[in-house]
Amino acid sequence: xxxxxxxxxxxxxxxxxxxxxxxxxxxxxxxxxxxxxxxxxxxxxxxxxxxxxxxxxxxxxxxxxxxxxxxxxxxxxxxxxxxxxxxxxxxxxxxxxxxxxxxxxxxxxxxxxxxxxxxxxxxxxxxxxxxxxxxxxxxxxxxxxxxxxxxxxxxxxxxxxx
Length: 162
Hints:
Blueprint: H1 26-39, E1 46-48, E2 58-63, E3 66-78, E4 82-88, E5 91-100, E6 103-109, E7 115-121, H2 122-135, H3 146-158
Antiparallel strand pairs: 1-2, 2-3, 3-6, 4-5, 6-7
């Protein structure tokens, strides 16, 4: 339907825990369409509903040419977290090593209410963790070691978009 503008650091919706989706109605169908359209833009690996201003548990992903979505995801991870280069559309221009597990799986539902499972390693695992964090009101900045987080926050304050 539409590529929606991305909410930026400082917007309260990015720090709010999202509500589960109880009913799959026309609003949810429209939201998923917008999430899929928004993640299809070049350079995007994921877009969570709060990033487009909607506080519900849904996100889209675009990894290795595969675009999809999930509603009400529950995250599982495996392996010791390792520093992984990461950025965020809601914190443009920053790139830092966040701690991420090498494998992840989300279990949720699709628009028909059927169970949906997405799992993988590498960039897909990172994207699943990153987008689930958004649904819990977290940004990747929260995953940075304290000294690097301090540096990142300085970069945010000095940015031309903040």
